[in-house]
Amino acid sequence: MKGRQIILDQWRGRDAAALMVDGKLDDLLISPQDDAPPAPGAIFRAIADRPMKGQGGMMMRLPEGNALFRGAKGLKEGQPLFVQVVSYAEPGKAVTVTDRIVFKGRAAIVTPGAKGINVSRQIKDEEERVRLLAAAHTQAAEASSHGVIIRSEAAQEADDDISNEVDDLLDLADQVLADPGQGPDLLVDAPGAHDLAWRDWPKADVAQGFEAHGVLDALDALETAEVRLGAGSIFVEATRALIAVDVNTGSDFSPAAGLKANLEAARALPRQLRLRGLGGQIVMDLAPMPKKERRQFEQVLRAAFRSDPIETALVGWTPLGHFELQRKRERLPLEF
């Protein structure tokens, strides 16, 4: 099927959403289990517990477990602080939080303490920018001390829908930040898979049922570490310390086999990491190629990650010729 389609269903008892592009699984969201660590986006009232000496951080108490807050200068033990989860915690480690809280919707983002109304730079059309700014300049937005950022997805939204969402997010921000409680508490839970699909994926036809739309077959393909890419392949394997990506030329023995396999791997890697929910340190063991071709590889890799929704830093080359990346842990690894 051509075009974009959002498929909603449950997978192993959890809400799940799949984004199909031209009949191919392009993205996958699965709600975490009840006993999973706090998800990115959740907002807590946390209590400063103990400083992390030499690291400039503070361990914070949450309703269940602890969190690490970096840059805790001036924060005293026992002091309450509104924080938001940044990323999933690695096994055995505390979740990382920030005090730079944002309230994110489909069309707008509210930024407490950063007054101003702006439009995403991704929207280039000047007339459209003027329309979106007008929709965002509600009475509540102009009177608020919070900032408003109109997302690129707002280009598909009606003026009234944008204005109503801005007002709702501002009202939510005011309620949360005015909370009078003292102990650790969950104030705003992170959105589940279906809500995230509505919020972050561009408008598309919505359907129900993974089996009827080929999603289960695509999930079966993710059970193996090997991903076939033309004559070559890559193996994507998660260890406790890092994600290892091995690139193989396969049956191609031509002089340019290494470069071709590495470029195919670069184009395929963002999608494979998205679908598998992988983040953290990533090391690519590339097929042999001359050093003069590294620049072309980097350009293709950078272009591939440009449209990926998860923050990924291209760190660079190691002395052994591996390429390293650092990816935000916005999702939990897919488990079969």
Number of helices: 7
Helix content: 10-25%
Cα gyration radius (Å): 22 Å
Write down the secondary-structure element order. Answer: EEEEEEEEEEEHHEHEHEHEEEHEHEE
Shape: globular
| Mean pLDDT value | 94
Write out the strand line-up for the largest beta sheet, numbering strands in chain order.
15-16-17-18-20-19
Structure, explained:
This protein is an alpha+beta fold and 336 residues long. Helices cover 25% and strands 33% of the residues. The chain contains seven helices and 20 strands. The protein has a six-stranded mixed sheet with strand order 15-16-17-18-20-19, covered by helices on one side. It has a five-stranded mixed beta barrel with strand order 4-5-6-8-7. A four-stranded mixed sheet has the order 3-2-1-14. A hairpin with a 3-residue loop joins strand 9 (103-104) and strand 10. Helix 1 (126-136) crosses helix 3 (159-177) and helix 6 packs parallel to helix 7 (294-306). The protein is globular, with a radius of gyration of 22 Å. 30% of the residues are buried.
